[in-house]
Structures are given as C-alpha cells and as structure tokens.
Amino acid sequence: MSNALIRRDNLILRSQLLKLVRDFFYLNDFTEVCTPIIVKTPALEDHIDAVRCNNHYLRTSPELHMKRLLSADCKRIFQIGSCFRNGEKGRLHNPEFSMLEWYVAGFNYMDILNQTKELVRYVCSNLLNNQKFTYGEQTINVGEEWEQLTVENAFTTFTDKTVGEAMKNNQFEELLTDEIEPEFSPDRATVLIDFPIELGALARASKSNSKLAERWELYIGGLEIANAYSELIDHEEQLRRFINTAELRKKNNREVYPIDEDFIRALKYGLPECAGCALGVDRFLMILSNRASIDEVISFYD
Amino acid sequence: MYNSSDLRKGLKIEIDNQPWAVTDFDFYKPGKGQALYRCKLKNMITGTTMDKTYRASDKIGKPELEERECIYCYEDGDRYVFSDDKTYEELYVKSEILGNNVNFLIENAECRILLFNDDPIDVTLPVFIEKVIKETEPGIKGDTATNVVKPATLENGYEIQVPLFVNEGDIVKLDTRTGAYVERVNKA
Questions:
Q1: Which among A246, A248, A250 has a CA at the least distance from the CA of A259?
Q2: Domain for residue A69, yes or no?
Q3: What is the CATH number of the domain that holds A90?
Q4: 20 to 30 A from A166, CA-CA: which of A26, A49, A121, B90?
Q5: ipTM beyond 0.95?
Q6: What is the pTM (predicted TM-score) of this model?
Q7: Which residues from chain B sit within 8 angstroms of residue A227, using beta carbons?
C-alpha cells in the first residue's frame, strides 16, 4: 500500500455522514461531549490492548469518561472521535479508528437498539436517498425488520456446539466468525443478542438469567458495526470484574492496566440505569460507500 | 518462537518439522473477543497450501532457514553439486528439489540455495541464462514480425518454443522462472 492515498470522494462522504449523525443526535436532544484522548488508564478488558503514550495511554474507547459524565447528571450524551487499539490491523481493523459512542440515562439495551435502528435508517435515507443499498454482492435494506438472534440460538442452529461448549473449548470467536456470521440474512441487518456474561466486562447481567449480559452486536453486510449494552452500575460488581480481568490478563502475559479508581468512585456516587452504544464510523462508511477494506475509507493510511 | 502478533505476509514459520511461508494474512477480532490471525500457508518443500487460524496466545515455530550463495559445479548421479561461494563447501541437491530447473543449470552459474535444518529445499537460478539450440527446423529468413513459433531442442534434450527465424547452433536467452525463450543472443 502506497502511503497517504487521499480519497476525496470518501472524505466528502465521511463529512456528510458526520453531519447527519450530529443532526440526528441534536434533534434527539443530545449533548455532544469531548472526553480525554490521553488517559491515565484504559478500561480493563480481556482482549483489548492500549497504545502507550509516555506514562499514560491513548483511549481504547471513551466509555469510562462518558459514564462519569452520566453520573454527573448528563442524561443524553454522544461523542465522535478517534480511539486506539494496539496491534489491531487487518481488512476491518486499524490501530486508530473513528468511534461514535452515545449513552442514554433511563434506557436499557433494547431501548438503545430501537434508537440505533432510527439512526441507521435516518443516515441511509438522507445520505443515499434510500434504505436499500448494495454492499459487495449483497443488496441490503436496513428499512426491513432487522434479524434478531440470541447468541445461544446462533450456536445451536449453525454449529455443532452449544455456546457453553464453545466458551469452554476457547472456540467462541472462531465458530462465530467461520460458521455463524456467514449464515446471517444477506439482505437485512442482523442483531446478535444476549452474550455470555464473560463477554461483557462492563455490561449488566440479564435480570432473568445472570449468566447472560444484556448486550448486542449489530451486523450489516456481514460487518460488525456496533456494540451496545445495558450498563453495569453496581460499583462492587464492577470492581470484582476488573480484578478478575486483571488476573486473567496477568495469566495471559498481557499488560495489566491499573484499575480506574475515578470511574469506580463515580459508580459508587451513582450511575443512573442507562445503556450505551459504540458504532464504528469507518466500517459504517465502508458499507455506505461499498468498500471492501477499512484502508479505503481512511484519509491517510499507511 | 514467534508470537501471533509477528505474523504477516511473507513470514516463514515451522509446523510439524516443515517450513511454511505465509502467503496471505488477515487480522480479525470479533467484538470484545480474542484476536484471530488468519493465514494462508504454503509448504516450502512440497508446495501444498492450507488455511490456518492462530489465536493471540499461540506460539509459532521459527524454522531454521539459511540462504547461501553458491556456484553450480557438476552433476553426480541424481544429485547436483554446488559449491558455497565463500566457504567452498560442497552442497548436494537432489533432482526432485530442482524440478524443472534441472534443464537450466549451467556450470559456474551463481545460484542461491535455501536450506532448512541444513538440507537444501530450494534453488534459485539466475533469471536469465543462455543456451545453444541443438535441433530445430531450418529458420525462415526475415520472419521477425509474427508470433509464430516452432519447437527447438537444447543440448540437454529440453524442448522449448522459439520464433521461426531461429536456427540450429544459435544461442538464445531463456527466462528460468518460466522456461520461456526471451531473445536470440548470437547467430550461428
């Protein structure tokens, strides 16, 4: 790849997309926020590595700071900005990528799913003048009812393992990408819902089944576009999970980040019941502009 | 040992005592799950290919590979003898390693030999070599414009396709990567 290919068409499309996203959130009474990009410690997650920046880190997501704003009585907030993940480079990954993240007090994961549908349809209708568009060999209509599958059903339907067996054999990711994702309806959006609790370090457990996290992932055109959950608001539970994650990272010889005490303190002070969603802007742009690879929608890529 | 994060296109790895080259590579990470490193691999000895996915925690073997500059010396039964350019040590290469390259060996040609655990597994010849045409139908004078070709045999019995104007005794240049005629160097 020659460096610094500037794709003018995509820059313009990105600009239009960002404007529409802002329009949507301003119309829905949101406040746009900016939280630190250089952070003392990134969120502790099993499989996300941060880029170091002197004795600090670049944020892997704005989640912890945005939740601190919620505990300071901000009720509807959104942010668009760069996030950084060490070592993630591939057709759908770049170590620096653009994230849209928003939180709503009083929402659960299903409420924010409905809002995500509105957002995606609003953007497509205004950007493409159509809810129907072509991505690769697929014609997708995001105006059609979105396919909804629980993780448990997806495993029993499309693989010869239950989700529990897959987790135990350390095959969750492989079966998900090799056997489940290709089975999603090609002509509409798909939502994979109710993940094992181990895969939702900051998500609330389901009220009916404590082994499940109230979390979903949105796929459009086979690409994972967004991730959302009902937020965990219990500070003791959150601290326990951070400690577990730190131990797991240590066991796997990965850098162990300090626990974000300010975040735990904010939960203790009081985070309202809320839900949040993170949407990959670059991947969204990929499907809207029918591009196969993330480097085609990033302005300066090397 | 390599870590999964070292994987990239062109890396050479070892699996079950065999050297494999990564011919295609993609990093993929679903959701908050662990990373998958998807590779297309080609066996550097047999040429067979396979797909393999590594996870973040995997350790991958590093093959003991060495490349040496050598001079081709002579044929000895079904082995071919090369001499290391620096140490003058003799290296023996079996004919099955050379494959079709056997037909393009020229004494004193500078070659590169790839060794895996000290055994030669691949020989790279000079890209262009010159060979004498031993046998072909008489040339047709003046026909240099058309793409029509005819068979011609080299001194070692290897048959190539040459343009109609080429005659017996002519010296021609061949591309060892494809075995194809490139141009006539010298008229007989």
A1: A246
A2: yes
A3: 3.30.930.10
A4: A49
A5: no
A6: 0.82
A7: 31-32
